[in-house]
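Checklist before submission:
- one chain only
- standard amino acids only
- sequence pasted in full

Submission:
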Amino acid sequence: MTPTRREFLQRTGLAGLCLGTPGWLAACEGVARRSPNVVLIFTDDQGYADVGVYGAEGFTTPHLDGLAAQGMRFTDFYASEAVCSASRASLLTGCYAPRVSIRGALTPGAQVGLNPEEITIADLLRGVGYATGAFGKWHLGDDPQFLPLQQGFDQYLGLPYSNDMWPVDYDGTPATSGNKLRWPPLPLIEGNEVLEIVDELADQDQLTTRYTERALDFIDRNAESPFFLYLAHSMPHVPLGVSEKYRGHSEQGMYGDVIEEIDWSVGQVLAALDRNGLAEDTLVIFTSDNGPWLNFGNHAGSTGPLREGKGTAFEGGPRVPAIMRWPGRIPPAAVCERMASTLDVLPTLAAITGAALPPQPIDGVNILALLEGQPDANPRNVFWFYYAAELRGVREGRWKRVFEHRTRSYVGVEPGMDGLPGPYGQPTVPTALYDLENDIGETTDVSDLHPDVVRRLDEIAEVARATLGDRLTGREGAEVRAPGRKSLAGAGR
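Returned file contents:
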């Protein structure tokens, strides 16, 4: 019988220390060594090409570029799904979103959220003595039972969902139609309570700074013991907000200003680690929840050579920038061309810290060997491309199989400008096979040339469908778990 979340955490709180990997948690051998701190910086809608070392144009990211020079840059790193809530659920649980039944982007007052029975990264690390803090966007349910303090975090300050989920249009005027009319004012939450209301676009200009300040305070307060810092920026999700110190700072315009302020935030966090003598003992992870929302034009980022963007299963949707630094363990100026994912963060941190893995099945794999630069390491050779419980594609090595589905598209439509959205195309894309090694832009179907590859990837797809289901083919997955559901007695928000 699978233990409950409470039973698992009770059993593993101290026992997990005896499961540690060599070198870091040696308390069970009578040697007191500090487990590494973990800083996880997660941006919102930042495109693959929106960092200097990934080819950014019109703005600079010196702190992120420096992080890459001191650590490892990934070329083939995937968010599990190209949309907000699903992506965040996967990051924190190590599970594809269909496994934990989180779809799309949860709206204010949603009746579901991340099930409190799921084990998060924060749960695991707090169980082995870590202080845990989350600052920024949450988006896994706004009912009190779903908020961060009930999901393993000691502290929280941030927005419970996306910064455009409020009764204000993208031009800053009161909403007059659509879903926005039904949404409440945007709450900034401290712990479990509303600290203040974000009323106007100008109020969002301080979000990056406020999250950063709280992150710095968390580092300073917990410098003597291991900590897990989850800094989940609301930006560069629209509506864009940037403080006066970076407004007009970049050549690209407001989007570039926002990214440069995020880079400033990264620099502030790195400086705090240096100031406390913690840089050598800290694993820093930087990545994004999905690709850019391209129909916002000059208020959206870039996917570089990749096809499409947010909300799609083409590479521009889930493939994101990812940089990791851990002095002494991750070689400097390294480039990893192997596949990896946000799914893999939880099991990798469990391996590093000695925390026990959750008792329920997860989908992530331990990528520590990749981080250490082991030349033959390839822990993840397969990836499933889900969106809204549809299995839209699978990848094995260089090969990607895309299945027929209807999707949003940014191709052939005029994007919006200056904060206003443009329309989507809604094509039905055909089943195809792409060679990502030679065709990163997914332009040419090579199915007829590689029938053996097609058969193998179709078999991989059947495993995914049997496990997690597939709305495209009407399949029910055998290993899908229920979401958390809002109780009738709950207060809600």
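Reviewer check: Residues 14-32 have pLDDT under 50 and may be disordered.
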